[in-house]
């Protein structure tokens, strides 16, 4: 089977003045992320693994404010390589959303100089594309609105990466 290319693919990166262990702590603290990121309106853990746990199969329902509206998605962790990488997936309306973080120690010395963090987002159509008038409307909508949505999504990802970096830097400096 041939892999389907994403309709959208965004990568945002940033250096974080904190070790990978601290950055990992921030990005895998679901309840903490809900308090940290202002666009998250609600977060409800669906898996019965308990607060503070994060592993493959962890699921939650996340409501965000996007484009002036609230949107709720069910998210699931699909891959975990502690302090290195995590992948999260959601599906809605015939689109699969793959989100993830890649962490790499920065610097060449024995003591890393912080962490280089990459925030990934891909949106891929799943199933057969709509045909007829509906298919035409979807293609026109993507052509017209796609570039705007990509810019807005990139800005949101940059803002969230900045907040994650600030929180990790604060924790690494001994803050609570």
Automatic annotation (TrEMBL):
Entry superkingdom: Bacteria
InterPro entries the UniProt entry points to: Polyketide_cyclase/dehydratase, START-like_dom_sf
SUPFAM superfamilies: Bet v1-like
Designated name of the protein: Carbon monoxide oxidation accessory protein CoxG
């Amino acid at each position: 089977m041939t892999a389907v290319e994403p309709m959208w693919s965004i990568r945002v990166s940033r250096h974080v003045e904190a070790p990978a262990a601290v950055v990992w702590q921030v990005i895998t603290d679901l309840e903490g992320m809900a308090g940290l990121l202002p666009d998250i309106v609600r977060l409800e853990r669906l898996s019965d693994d308990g607060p503070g746990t994060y592993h493959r199969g962890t699921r939650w329902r996340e409501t965000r404010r996007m484009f002036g509206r609230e949107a709720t998605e069910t998210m699931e962790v699909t891959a975990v390589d502690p302090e290195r990488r995590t992948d999260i997936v959601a599906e809605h309306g015939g689109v699969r959303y793959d989100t993830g973080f890649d962490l790499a120690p920065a610097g060449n010395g024995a003591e890393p100089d912080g962490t280089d963090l990459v925030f990934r987002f891909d949106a891929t159509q799943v199933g057969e594309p709509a045909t007829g008038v509906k298919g035409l409307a979807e293609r026109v909508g993507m052509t017209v609105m796609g570039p705007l949505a990509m810019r807005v999504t990139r800005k949101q990802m940059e803002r969230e990466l900045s907040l994650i970096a600030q929180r990790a830097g604060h924790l690494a400096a001994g803050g609570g």
